[in-house]
Each structure stands twice: as structure tokens, then as C-alpha cells.
Amino acid sequence: MFKNRVGEIPTLFTKRKIYMDAITIKIRQKDYSIKQSFRSYLLFEEMTNKQISEIETLKDILTLLYCTLKGCNKDFNFSFDEYIDLIDEDSTILAKFNDYNSVLSNPTPEKKTKKV
User: Domain total for the chain?
Assistant: First the structure.
């Protein structure tokens, strides 16, 4: 899903800009924002010692979601262990995040129009 060549800049930051507005995920009756951000990527790199382009495992994806929640929501105060418990309680949290990233990594191609 996130597999890029090592050292490649995520598509969001290249000339072919693919950006999607934030989505909202409800956790324990509270709304949290999810969106791509440098803060989230930096938190991910700090926690895992991996680049964003090296995401391969379920643990990597769960860690990226955690970093995204922390990076986009100053009031997201759950520890990583508490967060894993939240995911176990409600797997739709991870499903929404995967759907969001799926749209980013598989954008709808632009339609080419013929000039007459």
C-alpha cells in the first residue's frame, strides 16, 4: 500500500500533487482529524527509525495511524498501548485510515480531453 523506493519523496510532495482533505474518525465519542502532514511523518520516523517509504508491516501501518492521530490532534493523549486497545475495540478506525490511504495511493486518473 505504501511501498515506494527507499528515499523517494511521498507522492503528496511531488509535482503530481495528490492531496485529500482531512477525514474525521470517531474514537470513544470524540472526533479526531486524519490527514497527511509532515508532523505525522516525522513522528513516524522518530518512533520506528524508518522512512515513510519503508512501510511494510501491519505494525508500521498501525504506527503511522498513531503518529497521524498524534500529529493532527493536540488532544490525542493516548499512549501507544492504549491506542492498540482502541483499535481492538473498534477495527473501523483502521479500516477508515486504510481507505483514506488507498485513495491517496491509487488516485483516479485525470481525463484527457481532445482538442477539436
Answer: 1
Tell me the C-alpha distance between 83 and 66, whole Å. 7
Give the pLDDT confidence of 10-68 residue by residue, as tens digits: 554 444 444 567 889 999 999 999 998 899 999 999 999 999 889 999 999 999 999 99
Is 45 in contact with 53 (CB distance < 8 Å)? no
- The DSSP letter of residue 13 is G
Tell me the three-class secondary structure of 76-93, residue by residue. Answer: CCCCHHHHHHHHHHCCHH
Asked if 34 and 27 count as a contact pair (C-beta separation under 8 A), the reply is no
Place of cell 509532515: 38
Which structural domain range is residue 39 located in? 11-105
Neighbouring-strand partners of residue 30: 27
- What's the full length of the chain, in residues? 116
- Domain for residue 6, yes or no? no
Query: Model's pTM, two decimal places?
Result: 0.73
